[in-house]
Each structure stands twice: as C-alpha cells, then as structure tokens.
Design goal:
Helix content: 40-55%
Structural class: mainly alpha
Number of helices: 3
Number of strands: 0
Radius of gyration: 25 Å
Largest sheet: none
Shape: elongated
C-alpha cells in the first residue's frame, strides 16, 4: 500500500503540493484526508449508538421568571448585568 493512501502520507503530500506546486494535484490527497474524517465520524456515531448515548442533547433552559439563574446576583442583590448603570 503506498504511503499516500495512509493519513500521514496524504497530509505530507498535500502540504508539499500546496507549498511547492501551488496546489496542483492535491485532489487524491484531500479525498484520502476527507475519507479518514468521514470514517472517524461514522465510527463515533456507531459507538455512541451502540452504547445508547444521544449524539446531541438540548441545552438546559431555566424556567421563565428566574433571573437569578440566568444572571448571577451580586452581593448587594443587583444582577451583574445591571451593575454600573
């Protein structure tokens, strides 16, 4: 297997072609790099699916009317957002 089909070889060949030849003939190297990235994402999603964890979760939103959770209260009872006004 030629070294250009392995990730380090493709990266070095792409950097060499960009630096010395103005980016000519880097398509195969970029396809190898993007293939490794795609395979890494696929493995990550597969493992997360198999262990039962969600891929993404929604951010926690505090209930309405609780400004102390959104804006920390300072020592004098004022919100940090209102300080200095």
């Amino acid at each position: 297997m030629p070294s250009r089909w392995l990730l380090p070889g493709a990266g070095v060949d792409a950097a060499h072609a960009i630096a010395y030849f103005g980016g000519i003939n880097v398509t195969a190297d970029l396809l190898v790099i993007s293939g490794y990235a795609t395979a890494g994402l696929a493995v990550t999603y597969l493992v997360m699916f198999l262990i039962g964890r969600p891929l993404m979760t929604a951010p926690a939103v505090p209930p309405p009317g609780t400004p102390g959770l959104i804006y920390p209260v300072g020592p004098g009872g004022e919100n940090w957002r209102d300080r200095g006004t």
